[in-house]
């Protein structure tokens, strides 16, 4: 009987250990899944701003340069136009993001104050409330301006060393197309979105913006020459 009791005790101990290991493993898997999901959620917040700023800088600056290139063959005019677009766009992005994020900050701070007042009324102390990360307007403005500038540098660098007019336009179009594909793929991979669909959407949108700007500027310039 003593041996049977000892055997049963050892079996129970093994089962307890086994159950504990299973529970620990399941807990780790759940934690990993939550961390992975949390990472994607956090990543999407800055990824959206970075991809939007880079694409905006790339497309708007390239469209400006293509538009001016439609009526002016001088490389200096094209580069100055692109540089002016870079500076103006980066400042516009920074100011717009600063104002937007600051408004969001005011809303979140006001909401936290209301939540804190409610918790205090419910009998909870201030120490029991957890501080969460609030949006930083200056950081958001700097990131948007930097992303815009990075995108805008692509057509500027592509056109800087090409003296021939038609070759310069072609090089700018090719460089911008490749950059659009890269931005689309990077954004899709990091955001776990469909790669082909996302990259083609970005590419076709950039082509459309450059084509419309080039065509309208070309037509207006031609009509002025006729008059």
Automatic annotation (TrEMBL):
The entry's keywords: Ion transport, Iron, Iron transport, Membrane, Transmembrane, Transmembrane helix, Transport, Vacuole
Catalyzed reactions: Fe(2+)(in) = Fe(2+)(out)
GO terms of molecular function: iron ion sequestering activity; iron ion transmembrane transporter activity; manganese ion transmembrane transporter activity
Protein origin, superkingdom: Eukaryota
Cell location: Vacuole membrane
Signal peptide stretch: none
Membrane topology, record value: Multi-pass membrane protein
Pfam family, one: VIT1
GO biological process, one term: intracellular manganese ion homeostasis
Chief location category: membrane
One CC-aspect GO term: vacuolar membrane
PANTHER family in alphabetical order: FE(2+)/MN(2+) TRANSPORTER PCL1 (PTHR31851)
Annotated family: Belongs to the CCC1 family.
Function according to Swiss-Prot or TrEMBL: Vacuolar Fe(2+) uptake transporter.
Record's protein name: Vacuolar iron transporter
Organism: Thalictrum thalictroides (Rue-anemone)
Organism placement in taxonomy: Eukaryota, Viridiplantae, Streptophyta, Embryophyta, Tracheophyta
């Amino acid at each position: 009987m003593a041996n049977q009791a000892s055997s049963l005790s050892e079996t129970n101990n093994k089962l307890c250990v086994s159950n504990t290991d299973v529970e620990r493993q399941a807990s780790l898997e759940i934690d990993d899944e939550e961390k992975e999901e949390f990472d994607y959620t956090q990543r999407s917040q800055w990824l959206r701003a970075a991809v939007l700023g880079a694409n905006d800088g790339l497309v708007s600056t390239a469209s400006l340069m293509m538009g001016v290139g439609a009526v002016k063959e001088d490389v200096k005019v094209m580069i100055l136009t692109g540089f002016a677009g870079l500076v103006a766009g980066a400042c516009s992005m920074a100011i717009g993001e600063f104002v937007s994020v600051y408004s969001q900050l005011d809303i979140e701070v006001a909401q936290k104050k209301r939540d804190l007042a409610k918790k205090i009324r419910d009998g909870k102390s201030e120490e029991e409330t957890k501080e969460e990360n609030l949006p930083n307007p200056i950081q958001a403005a700097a990131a948007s301006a930097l992303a815009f500038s990075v995108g805008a540098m692509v057509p500027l660098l592509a056109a800087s060393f090409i003296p021939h007019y038609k070759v310069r336009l072609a090089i700018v179009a090719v460089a911008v197309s490749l950059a659009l594909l890269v931005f689309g793929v990077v954004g899709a991979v990091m955001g776990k979105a469909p790669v082909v669909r996302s990259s083609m959407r970005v590419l076709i949108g950039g082509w459309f913006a450059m084509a419309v700007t080039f065509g309208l500027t070309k037509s207006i310039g031609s009509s002025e020459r006729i008059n």
